Amino acid sequence: MEKSGFVPDLIYGEIKNEIMTNTLEIGEKVDIDDIMKRFQVSRRVAFGALHCLYKSGMLCENNGGQSFSVAIKNEAEHREKSRMKLAFFHLNYAVQKLQDKDAEICSTCLRKELVYVKLAVADQNTDVFIHHVKNFYACMIHYTEMPAMEKNIDTLTILLQKMKEKNKKLFFDAFIMDITESLEELVTCLEAREFGKCHLVIQKFYDKNISILFS
User: Fold this and answer.
1) How far apart are CA 53 and CA 9, in angstroms?
2) Which residues neighbour 171 within 8 Å (Cβ) at sequence distance 6 or greater?
3) How far is 50 from 56, CA to CA, in rounded Å?
4) What are 62's strand-pairing partners?
5) How many CA atoms lie within 13 A of 157 on its CB side?
6) 75-213 has which CATH code?
7) pLDDT tens by residue, 6-16
């Protein structure tokens, strides 16, 4: 029988603690049925708690969301992943601000930075590539009218450098091409004022590439 008043937050706290202390190790399966038995809760409550852990980046979904496994190694990695997620959230926020204000979109600076990004890709010049991706991000964040968000640029720099260090061949053969294509698609959607598609482009890139960094 489900415990009276037992909420997903309590399960969330215990499982999070086990992940942070490496009681549950990266890649280890966290089974919904086990959570139900251990905490004497319904499937709905167990799933709700695990889904919150997934949304926070501590678990990853398997089998189309039917099961979960540990996605991070320790608390430091969780903090880093949270900062990455926040940087992408603010990019979405910039798109939302443009939509809400119904403002004129000047894509000139975005297109200019995109040209430099493509040239850097052709030359496989990492420093130039990172510099102009940062400039592109700064142009987007400008639309939020919240200068404090510019600190995310440092987070973005760390992300790109770590991606290169993790797998240099993958970085040049796939990752930077994916960034370039995503930025191109983002600008095109902005120019067409297809804001829903902008959010999808950002989310698709995050889901596909951030998991590589923490795998």
Assistant:
1) 10
2) 126, 163, 164
3) 10
4) 67
5) 12
6) 1.20.120
7) 567 889 999 98
Determine the pLDDT at residue 34. Answer: 93
- Joined tokens for residue 51: 């889904």
CA gap 120, 114 in Å, rounded: 10
Structure tokens at 55: 């949304």
Q: Beginning with the edge strand found earlier in the chain, give each strand of the sheet holding 67-70 in spatial order.
A: 29-30, 67-70, 59-62
User: In this structure, what token pair is assigned to residue 34?
Assistant: 């086990």
CA distances to 10, 39, 50, 87 from 3, in Å? 12, 8, 17, 38
Partnered with residue 30 across adjacent β-strands are 68
pTM: predicted TM-score of the whole model, two decimal places: 0.67
Is the model more confident about 6 or about 179? 179
**Domain spans of the chain, in order of start:** 8-70, 75-213
Spelled out in words, what is the top-level CATH class assigned to the domain 8-70?
mainly alpha
For residue 118 the two structure tokens come to 């493509």
